[in-house]
Design brief:
The complex is a heterodimer of chains A (178) and B (286). Chain A contains six helices and nine strands; from the N terminus they run E-H-E-H-E-E-E-H-E-H-E-H-E-H-E. Chain A is of the alpha/beta class and 178 residues long. A five-stranded mixed barrel of chain A has the order 2-3-6-7-9. A two-stranded antiparallel ribbon of chain A has the order 4-5. In chain A, helix 3 packs parallel to helix 4. The longest helix of chain A is centred in the middle third of the chain and has 11 residues, at 85-95. Helix content of chain B is 39%, strand content 23%. A five-stranded mixed sheet of chain B has the order 2-1-3-8-9. Classes of the chains: A alpha/beta (178), B alpha+beta (286).
């Protein structure tokens, strides 16, 4: 099945998705890699300067360009998701994230967490950075840039028909990586 | 010799490496696309579309513009080869701003990103010398997704070549979809722990589809490729017939009591470009 979804959407939608489904996402994504995961989990939620509720989590360390104070995306494909395996279940649970976009897949811990939160893991081909950047229409925020640097900072992207994303881990516990 | 002119040569070298995938890799990816069906086929279709778009827009095809190794073959009679280090460093700084590249080098003690892609012992320069007055340099930017899957095996010599094959295969299986398959696998055999990893990386300089000139080694490469593709890991780990585009092996003699094996994985974005510098200061990127 092919879906075109605009975020935020009812969490029930993600429960209906199954492996091999194709999804195109419109709305907001936030990027987070190793260090952003650490920061999000060690910062008091009230002190967090952005609210990821309803956004998709994008495992991505983008290549950005600043022109006259305005950020644009040059290349922004997914990073290896498995590096976040040991903390992703906590992040999913704490922020009730509906969707993870990444590459290479994740392990049993995350599969179990997806089941619990009714979320999905979807993949975009690693390295396809320019193609992904074409679907990013705006940058509406950046956090921890000075402290973490460009690849590790949290970037909030507005995306239009971001995809095709393939569901590779669904909320029933199925994974295409096993 | 005009330093500014040479810096521009290296900026062009980096631009080419980051934005234009070598034709041998594109050919191999296209062949893989023709053979695959299902999820792998869609992934390869997107990968090929991305390669085309990056070339057209002159944008780095992957956001992970990598960390650079420069393999330098310097002619004994090239004037002032010692100035090349400074020239390359300047080109990396300029490329980071102009192309741009993602700042990828962080201090190992503080994790601070200095934003210029330089750092202690980076970029890595690997020197060789040969007769003549030219310098040939290959730039090999490598992302962390594949680099993190590289592995060193210090096998017992009794494990023999069969042990080498099993070690390579086990590392590829362990890596699964993480190094962005279809991968190119560089394998070093022999030497020492450090030399064997350099051999594995050097093996990646050979174009995809070109086997070792030593027939025995070429046979080993073909056997390894067949074994790796039989795993069914497939493009981005989503299953398929093609897991590796090629396997390249480079060897060194070994201590009778040691059998080092170095596995260096390269993602499908097997980026590399060459520059030739002439004694009169002119250059050509290809």
């Amino acid at each position: 099945m092919e879906y075109h979804v605009t975020l935020p959407v009812s969490p029930d939608f993600f429960k209906t998705l199954r492996v091999n489904d194709i999804v195109y996402v419109t709305g907001k994504l936030f990027t987070a890699r190793d260090r952003a995961h650490e920061k999000m989990l060690t910062t008091n939620r009230k002190e967090l300067q952005f609210d990821p509720t309803g956004m998709a989590l994008y495992h991505c360390g983008p290549l950005m360009k600043q022109k006259q104070g305005k950020w644009t995306v040059v290349s922004a494909g997914p990073t290896t998701s498995n590096r976040m395996e040991d903390v992703e279940d906590i992040l999913l649970d704490r922020f009730r994230l509906p969707m993870i976009i990444g590459k290479g897949g994740m392990g049993r811990r995350t599969a179990k967490a997806l089941k619990k939160t009714g979320s999905v893991y979807v993949a975009f081909p690693g390295g396809a950075g320019v193609l992904a950047a074409e679907k990013i229409t705006g940058v509406s925020g950046v956090f921890w840039l000075e402290e973490l640097g460009m690849p590790e900072a949290v970037w909030i992207f507005d995306v239009q028909e971001f995809g095709p994303l393939i569901v590779t881990m669904d909320s029933t516990g199925k994974s295409l990586y096993q | 010799m005009n330093k500014k002119h040479l810096v521009q040569g290296f900026v062009q070298l980096i631009l080419k490496a980051e934005t234009e995938l070598p034709s041998d890799v594109v050919t191999a990816l296209t062949q893989a696309y023709k053979k695959e069906t299902g999820a792998a086929s869609l992934q390869l279709e997107l990968i090929l579309a991305n390669v085309k778009l990056a070339r057209k827009k002159r944008c780095p095809l992957c956001q992970d513009t990598g960390v650079f190794s420069f393999f330098i073959k310097a002619g004994y009679d090239f004037p002032a080869p010692g100035s090349l280090k400074g020239i390359i460093e300047q080109a990396v700084i300029e490329s980071t701003k102009k192309i741009p590249l993602r700042p990828n080098t962080v201090d190992p003690m503080t994790s601070k990103n200095h934003g210029d892609n330089l750092g202690l012992n980076l970029p890595q320069l690997i020197w060789d010398f040969e007769p003549g007055n030219k310098v040939q340099v290959t730039a090999l930017p490598k992302g962390s997704g594949s680099e993190n899957m590289s592995a060193l095996g210090l096998l017992s010599p009794r494990a023999g070549l069969e042990g080498v094959k099993q070690f390579v295969l086990s590392q590829v299986k362990k890596a699964g979809g993480k190094p962005c398959p279809p991968i190119v696998v560089g394998v070093g055999i022999g030497g020492s722990a450090d030399l064997v990893m350099t051999l594995g990386k050097r093996a990646l300089l050979r174009p995809v589809g070109v086997h070792h000139t030593d027939r025995r080694i070429a046979t080993l490469e073909r056997e390894l490729l067949k074994m790796i593709n039989a795993t069914g890991i497939g493009t981005m780990g989503l299953g398929g017939k093609i897991t590796a585009l090629d396997v390249h092996v480079e060897v060194a003699h070994r201590h009778p009591a040691s059998l080092p094996v170095g596995v260096v994985m390269q993602c499908w974005a097997d980026r590399r470009a060459h520059i030739t510098l002439h004694a009169d200061g002119s250059w050509k990127v290809d």
